[in-house]
Amino acid sequence: MQLGRTQRLADDSAFNVLNKHCLDENGRISLPLDTVEVARRLGIGLEWDDDPNMSSERSGYSQLDSEGKPKIFVNPKQGRERMRFTVAHEIGHIYRAMCDGTIDQLVPHDRAELATQGTDDDEIYANTFAAELVMPEAIVRRWVEEAVPFTKLMARFGVSKSALTNRLNNLELA
To answer: Which contiguous run of DSSP H or E holds residue 62?
Structure first.
């Protein structure tokens, strides 16, 4: 699959975040990645939004808090793997806004439909960023080459079957 400009930018951004904020003292990434800790290291707040009015289809959103700092709101009704990917996805939105100098324009949008269609530039970026953050390409490729079973890959990355399937398809490894 030929990556577009947005996807390359998202991959590079996630790679930079991994290298600057996720390596242990031995230069390794601990998996499954603790996306909550990554958000904290980037200065992003996090809240488990148990608002009964939040639709079960909405996994989360990000916006600025009352002090103008970025904050991620996660739907706790989602599964653990979904919540991990949602946090990574929202970090992608925030990181892009930080790099573009548009963080002051961060407002919540209901993008659930856009995210699944794969046509919106912001959603393509956030999904690609999240996939690279929680399932780094180099590690995915190495483990697939080593014939690590699919269910073990899911457990090692802490992701759902659909997230791993999408990642393998996008990397042309399926």
So the answer is: strand 60-64
pTM (predicted TM-score): 0.90
Buried/exposed code over 128-161 (b: 16+ C-beta within 10 A; e: otherwise): bbbbbbbbbbeebeebeeeeeeeeebbebbbbbe
Q: At what angle do helices 161-170 and 150-157 cross, to 10 degrees?
A: 100
Query: Total structural domains in the chain?
Result: 1
Going by C-beta distance under 8 Å and a sequence separation of 6 or more, which residues neighbour residue 163?
Answer: 81, 85, 131, 134, 135, 157
- Domain holding 29: CATH number? 1.10.10.2910
DSSP state of 71: E
Which phi and psi (to 5°) does residue 23 adopt? -85, 140
**What does the angle CA 34 – CA 173 – CA 113 come to, to the nearest 5 degrees?**
60
Judged on CB neighbours under 10 Å (0-12, 13-18, 19+), 63 is middle
48-85 pLDDT, tens digit each:
977 666 677 788 999 999 999 999 999 998 889 999 99
Range of the domain at 114: 5-170
